[in-house]
Design brief:
The protein is mainly α and about 475 residues long. It has 3 domains: about 200 residues, Up-down Bundle (Growth Hormone, Chain: A); about 45 residues; about 190 residues, MFS general substrate transporter like domains (Growth Hormone, Chain: A, Up-down Bundle), CATH 1.20.1250. It is about 75% helix and about 0% strand. It is built from 15 helices and no strands. Helix 2 packs antiparallel against helix 7 and helix 4 packs across helix 14. The longest helix has about 30 residues.
């Protein structure tokens, strides 16, 4: 196993070459376990809430990990830029396991939520640390393939996670949905350990990569201190939680929601490259596209099964198949972009992917408004998944390609923060819109209209991911 990035002679080797095999399997296993746990909790949470009498904290059990994950992302990015990714990866795995243990042994809903908050902190940090490991261990030519493998590691749990979690909860106990993952995390980390040797210490401080004309993507991160970034991350996390909870305020909910969005945008500004919120060409637009794509896709996806159940009398099992179709096509799209490599340039892949997501959301909106057959919405979501698979990995590759050694951690955390906050803000806003309309038809129409508008913004910004 190489101590640093492998020699150029290995550039043409695949990610399952013997020099990369263990780190590929271990990294994908860690991503898989984070994804599996997230989807499994969605399945068992109604049972947990009923058993622990925790209906009042139900939403917080999902919003909390997302919020603390932002803090973990920033902390891991700062730490990786100063000392390399080894320490952040070990610490994040330890926090993730601790959160699993707290949640798995919880006897009350507040204790379970506390475990989920710790899980979110570790899971967010783990994502950023793994991205920096990828940047240091694999040559750039293999980045599309390893990120395609990461996408597959997220998709596969959507096929088996809910069923497996329900089976464990039914036959044994919901506690083992958390505790069972603990025994798998440690072996996954051990497979990555050999590749981490030699990655200790402060990254190289050589001259940053030269930028292409008109591309300001490789500039240094903002000059805020590590503690300052953590403070901004904490404020952004609180804003996300406030937006999620604003719907419970009958009178001042609208004002609180607007204030929460404003605070979140102000707080996220120091956590992303300059020009991100104004869609500056290059890396800032790469980061913004990631957030907008996540907002459009996940904001609509959450309500698609609900639409099929309420409007078309689908059973929950069959309604979930729509998401399975999207998950399979996501994996297929990611595999296609990995195989095409440089034959499909990054900008075109991102633009095609964003257009597919927008087209799918518009089709779901039209299906809702005109009461078209449910098959139209289900087929549309297959194209949405393909679009996400096509551009998601490429946005990750572009982020690393447009980063220097000095800001790989900052930019990786910025991408993850944009991803997380984009989805969180979209879900919270669609929840407010859904509750604001008097009829189910209007509520679904409002949700899909909002996500379509976000999809339009993603298509516009996607055209700016490369410099002139």
């Amino acid at each position: 196993m190489p101590r640093t990035a492998p020699a150029p002679s290995l550039d043409s080797a695949g990610i399952f070459h013997r020099d990369y095999l263990l780190v590929t399997l271990g990294a994908c296993a860690l991503v898989f376990l984070v994804a599996f746990e997230s989807l499994a909790v969605t399945t068992i949470m109604p049972l947990v809430s009923r058993e622990l009498d925790g209906a009042a904290l139900y939403a917080l059990a999902f919003a909390g990990p997302l919020a603390t994950g932002v803090i973990g992302m920033v902390a891991a990015g700062n730490w990786s830029d100063r000392r390399g990714p080894v320490g952040p990866l070990y610490a994040s795995v330890a926090l993730f396991v601790l959160g699993l243990l707290i949640a798995g042994t919880a006897a009350t809903m507040p204790a379970l939520v506390a475990g989920r908050l710790v899980q979110g902190l570790g899971g967010g940090a783990m994502t950023v640390a793994l991205y920096v490991v990828i940047a240091r261990v694999y040559p750039p030519v293999l980045h599309p393939k390893i990120f395609a493998a990461f996408s597959a590691a997220w998709v596969i749990p959507s096929l088996v996670g809910p069923f497996a979690a329900g089976l464990v909860a039914q036959l044994v106990s919901w506690h083992w949905v958390f505790l069972g993952v603990v025994g798998l995390v440690v072996p996954a980390l051990l497979m990555v350990v050999p590749a981490l040797r030699g990655l200790h210490g402060t990254p190289d401080t050589g001259t940053p990569k030269p930028a292409a004309p008109g591309d300001m993507s490789t500039e240094a991160p903002r000059k805020s201190s590590g503690s300052g970034r953590l403070a901004w991350a904490a404020l952004a996390a609180l804003a996300v939680l406030g937006l999620n909870l604003s719907v419970r305020l009958p009178v001042a909910g609208g004002i609180a929601a607007v204030a929460a969005v404003a605070v979140a945008l102000i707080a996220v500004r120091p956590l992303v490259p300059r020009g991100t919120l104004t869609a500056r060409r290059g890396l800032p637009s790469v980061i913004l596209t990631r957030g907008l794509a996540s907002a459009a896709f996940f904001g609509a996806e959450v309500y698609l099964p609900y639409l099929l159940v309420e409007r078309y009398d689908f059973s929950p099992t069959f309604a979930g198949l729509a998401l399975t179709g999207g998950a399979v096509s996501w994996a297929a799209g990611s595999a296609v972009q990995g195989r095409l490599g440089s034959r499909l340039d990054h900008r075109r892949a991102v633009r095609i992917g964003a257009a597919l997501v927008l087209g799918a959301v518009v089709l779901v909106l039209v299906t809702t408004v005109l009461n078209w057959p449910a098959a139209v919405a289900i087929a549309a979501w297959v194209f949405a998944g393909a679009g996400m698979g096509l551009m998601y990995a490429r946005l990750s590759v572009m982020t690393l390609a447009l980063s220097s050694k000095q800001n790989e951690g900052f930019n990786s955390s910025a991408m993850s923060i944009s991803d997380s906050l984009g989805g969180a803000l979209s879900l919270a806003t669609t929840g407010i819109i859904f509750a604001a309309f008097p009829t189910a038809a209007a509520s679904f129409g409002g949700v899909f209209a909002l996500t379509a508008v976000i999809g339009v913004a993603a298509v516009v910004v996607a055209a700016r991911v490369a410099g002139r």
